[in-house]
Specification:
With about 270 residues, this protein is of the alpha+beta class. It has 9 helices and 7 strands.
Length: about 270
Amino acid sequence: MEEILFEELAPTFLFAWKGIRSRDEREYHCHDGHIEVSYVISGKGQYRIDGAVYDVAEGDVMIFNPGVYHQALAAGSRFTELFVGFCDVNTNGQKNRFEVPEMPLIHTSGELKQRLARLAASIDTENAEQKPGRYFMLRTYLEQMLILIAREQAKPVKYGKGYAFESVNKKYVTEQIINYFEEHYAEKISLDAIAENMYLSPYYISRIFKSETGDTPIHHLINIRLERAMELLKSGSCNSIREAAESVGYEDVYHFSKLFKKKYSISPSKVRAD
């Protein structure tokens, strides 16, 4: 997966504007201090962006980072778009930039298109109504929009022929989780943190993991930890049961011993004594 890393996702919401383009925008321009995202709500037209002309239509998203020149072109037709201006988003080591692989124009379809359309409508309504807490609602909608775009742009690894896109993605997510468990089993592991790093919900990755392995992520992690503990105890590498427990991520020795005995039908002290 081509990961998109948010070093900072607490955007300062600056403005929102919804309008109909029926003629060319007056100036070919750029902005120095903020980012703009445009979502085409309906219709079709063109945009000139950094010297290239792009056809745009309903569902398209355009990203204008600082320094990116752009100009809306009606091209003899008309289209409605929502602009959102913001700053303080840092991605992939780039300060005050929203960087994704497909830039500056992203074509959307299906569920993503529908969800972005709903968010665009929510931003427009909230912006117009001027209710208390308006700024925070607008920022929340913007954050959702950016995360949805980032998720869509996180591309699955390509496998050999014969796999459907959906199954490849599920397989990749599951393999990533298992690899993480194998490498970090001795540390404190949070499913919420893993889910956040993969731009997925904990519920969704749990469902994917179980559909691919028949097991839950937590139970799989427990098995990895207990198998490593068995290896340590059999080899005599640990001076105590507490040391064995802590070596595989358990601070509570009683809890560790209870899990160990449930899995192997023998206490860890017995294995060490043998």
